[in-house]
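=== Structure Prediction Worksheet ===
Name of assembly: unnamed complex
Input type: mixed (protein and possibly other molecules)
Chain count: two
Listed entries:
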Amino acid sequence: MSTVGPTLSETQLAALKQALAEDVIDYDGLTADYDADTDTYHIETPDKQTDPSAEELETVDAELTAYITNWYFYTHEVSTAVNRAFCRWLELAAEHPVPDRYATLDSGVDREWGQLAVTTSISADGTRHYEVRHVDDSDADATNLTAHTDPLAAREIGTLDENGRYRPLRTAPSLKTGWIFPKLSAAEVYEAVEAFYPATVVNWHREERGELDVDHWRDEQDRQSGIYNLITVLPDEAVDWAAAACCDDSQCLKRREWQLSADEPLAAAGGDGVFPCRGPCSMVVAAGREWAKLERQDTQTYEFELTPSEKEQLENIIDAVADNEIDEIREADVSNSANRYRVRYLREKRVDAEGNLSGTPTHPDDEHHH
Amino acid sequence: MQSLVIVAHGSHLNPDSATPTHTHADTIRETGVFDEVRTGFWKEQPSLREVLRTARGDDIYVVPLFISEGYFTERVIPRELRLEGWDPELWDSEGISADTATLVASDIGREVHYCGPVGTHEAMTDVLIRRAETVTGDEDVGEGFGFAVVGHGTERNKKSAKAIEYHTERIRETGRFDEVKSLYMDEEPEVDNVSDEFDSEDIIVVPLFIADGYHTQEDIPEDMGLTADYREGYDVPAEVDGHRIWYGGAVGTEKLTADVILERAADAGADIGNAITRVGQQTKPTTGTAGK
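=== Predicted Assembly ===
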């Protein structure tokens, strides 16, 4: 640890004296005040107290220096309450008093925010530095990752997934790997995270303070206009299916806090994400509109002739698509139900020229079968 | 401290939809006149519902990167931003003169300045002309050229045609081009007949759209006969019925659009110093022809 003779810089000392000339300090285990009559300071931490003169203030011990540089960093180098709260969360401030924390920061404190791995480290003067990379690159050699310095580069990185497909939902767990922000400041790490996962930090902060404003499904329904008015007719049970389909951790890293209404919880799991989801997003609303259209149809009884393994194959194909496993199926693995050859075989055998499964028309009373 | 919040439509399907918003936000960030520049979207994150809480300024200027007044600027955006007491009457506009309204956004419990859309600001005329310069690669372009401003038409929004006509008239008033006309996608005079509508051999065609997408990249080029299949691309200029068509694509991607955003904020009281002049200079094309 860099405890060998850490001293306060002139800037930090001046800031400390100025702050104490105006008011007492009570921050993160450090309390201090200044007595103008005796021209002495009184400084207390959980473990000790001391009354240095202005001169002695320059040579306080390593532990006090840590408390003071910690105060200086958070009050002078981090400019907003939400940024401060986030940086404190990143370094597990609530769990470790300052001296412990400085020791852990020396070797780096790792936290995960969605698919981001953020490592906080510290300079001898108490300034924190933040490294951000993909969680799947945690063990990668940094020299093998593309380095970025501008936090807004995160916007570009998050636009397309590994396969070059557009990510309309930035909080989907499909962030690509291969990049690193090796050294960001407190303000920059906030902006990078904001660009990767917009508004997640500010919503998390509201939640931390017990002030998260949740818009439940019914609020969302009531607010819609234009083409999205249609979601008002989506049946309640379909909202549960929609939440299970779209808001599961496998689809979105936000932790869904919205329900049908404040008094009507959904059965679907909300997920375990660090940051909350405070209302149905535009993707859920747009999907809800489609499902509202589909749910207007009545069910109908069909008769299909399938072997047991063909029935299971259909079910497995649904799973493979829903769980995004298609790309993992090996070309020649015909034993896999969703293998392309296997599915083509099923189509040859069971789907007629009109595209009807087992030759059963979709609309039996209709001349046009599809 | 002052914040600029640019709000735009965005898309679930097209990654380029948000590109102009981000590009212009970056241009304005570089000027340093705002302490922060935030972006919010109807279809992307952060949502319009949550964008204001990402802004920390005391003075917040919200500028819609939309082409016309109408459903989005008058209804959706104010509702999603939770502007208390919003009423389109506050803009006192018949379609092209929305300026600004100052209202408390209940999301953050503070006042914000809600500005009129970028597309109807008079400075947008300069952006259309700038696009004529970039697409021809000639900063003095005008003589011998016709200029078509293309819009959706009135089917979806009655006010959208007003914005088209407004800029068409303003470009005409400069006297710079031989002919200036409005053309539409779904009403007369139609963009399909561009070569019949103009006498000039050279015609510059610029859609008054914010972002490139289906309409500007697929529909319009095919409708005008620049190409049989948009996937094969088209020449700039392209020969159609004895005319040379200089197709510029969505005007909103022109870098000078950042200026119009600044103008909107300045009209609402933002202190932007000489940022407009600087952006005007900085976004000036230096060389060569646009097109592909």
